[in-house]
């Protein structure tokens, strides 16, 4: 299935140069009625979303709202444009602090297929966390449109004296109110917790030590890991997705932006196709 993303013309060269797609923190999305929950263990700031549409036909509303009133572009790629790979992580440290002495703190991921690498999982200020036990099916999906998102989300969250139980994983971030259903939105969803403000790539050992300290400190204080303070996360896309890329130019795109887009495609995605929009506006 192909998916489509409407954006400003100036954004496309940034995507192609970086080879990454941006995920926006859920509390920054345009529908204020979605993600209507916050518990001790989870809130909307734990979720990061990349929004697309599964409607193949062009949508004037999308062009106007997200693509600079038909002066931007529509990006078309096969779903998913991200590479899944098996990730194995098992690192921990034993605490030496009081009643926690001998207890292990760290992260363990056993042969789980994830749409990102270890280096992408451990970011500057965040750590990506699997949404569910079956990320390949849960990572991307169509948004569900309901009259009352607050009532609908209750089926996925329950609270009792022992804590909060959450089911549904990424589905929590794919619930919107019915006035938005014309968008036919398709979303990819990441979950993340706060991480060290360090580069894992530059120094994995320093990063792990800082992460141990963070996990241990929150455990001793009986606090859950906080959500990240960052507003977005960028995830690499595959070379195959770039090769299959189709860029549709808005009918009101300027000559300057047309040249910028064309040059970026020629340089970073030479096998991509550029076409003109069928929606012509006055």
- What is the overall number of helices? 8
Domain module tally: 1
Overall form: globular
Report the strand count.
17
The largest pleated sheet is described as: 7 strands, antiparallel
Helix content: 10-25%
Q: How much strand content do the residues show?
A: 25-35%
Protein architecture, described:
This protein has 282 residues and is an alpha+beta fold. The chain is 23% helix and 33% strand. It has helices at 11-18, 60-66, 118-121, 135-138, 149-153, 204-220, 239-243, 255-268, and strands spanning 2-7, 20-25, 47-53, 73-78, 85-94, 104-114, 122-123, 126-129, 140-142, 144-146, 157-160, 163-166, 175-177, 185-194, 232-236, 246-249, 273-276. Strands 2, 3, 7, 8, 9, 14 and 15 form a seven-stranded antiparallel sheet that branches. It starts with a strand and ends in a 6-residue tail after the last strand.
Secondary-structure blueprint of this entry?
Layout: E1 2-7, H1 11-18, E2 20-25, E3 47-53, H2 60-66, E4 73-78, E5 85-94, E6 104-114, H3 118-121, E7 122-123, E8 126-129, H4 135-138, E9 140-142, E10 144-146, H5 149-153, E11 157-160, E12 163-166, E13 175-177, E14 185-194, H6 204-220, E15 232-236, H7 239-243, E16 246-249, H8 255-268, E17 273-276
Parallel strand pairs: 10-13, 16-17
Antiparallel strand pairs: 1-4, 2-3, 2-15, 3-14, 4-16, 5-6, 7-8, 8-14, 9-14, 11-12
Helix pairs in contact: 1-8
Quick structural gist:
The chain has 282 residues and is of the alpha+beta class.
Keyphrases for this structure?
single chain, about 280 residues, alpha+beta, seven-stranded antiparallel sheet, four-stranded mixed sheet, 8 helices, about 35% strand, globular
């Amino acid at each position: 299935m192909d998916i489509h993303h409407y954006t400003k013309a100036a954004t496309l060269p940034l995507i192609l140069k970086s080879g990454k797609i941006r995920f926006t923190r859920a509390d920054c999305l345009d529908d204020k009625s979605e993600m209507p929950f916050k518990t001790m263990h989870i809130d909307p700031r734990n979720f990061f979303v990349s929004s697309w549409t599964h409607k193949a036909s062009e949508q004037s509303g999308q062009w106007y709202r997200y693509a600079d009133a038909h002066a931007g572009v529509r990006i078309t790629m096969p779903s998913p444009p991200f590479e899944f790979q098996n990730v194995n992580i098992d690192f921990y440290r034993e605490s030496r602090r009081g009643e926690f002495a001998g207890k292990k703190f760290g992260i363990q991921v056993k042969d789980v297929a994830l749409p990102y690498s270890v280096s992408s999982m451990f970011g500057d200020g965040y750590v990506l966390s699997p949404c569910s036990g079956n990320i390949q099916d849960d990572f991307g999906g169509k948004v569900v449109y309901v009259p009352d998102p607050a009532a609908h989300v209750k089926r996925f969250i329950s609270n009792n004296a022992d804590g909060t139980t959450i089911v549904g994983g990424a589905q929590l971030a794919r619930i919107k109110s019915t006035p938005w259903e014309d968008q036919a939105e398709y979303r990819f969803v990441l979950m993340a917790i706060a991480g060290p403000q360090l580069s894992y790539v530059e120094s994995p050992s320093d990063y792990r030590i800082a992460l141990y300290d963070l996990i241990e400190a929150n455990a001793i204080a009986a606090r859950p890991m906080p959500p990240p303070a960052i507003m977005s996360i960028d995830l690499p896309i595959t070379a195959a997705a770039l090769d299959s890329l189709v860029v549709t130019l808005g009918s009101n795109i300027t000559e300057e932006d047309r040249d910028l887009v064309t040059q970026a495609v020629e340089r970073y995605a030479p096998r991509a196709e550029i076409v003109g929009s069928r929606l012509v506006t006055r």
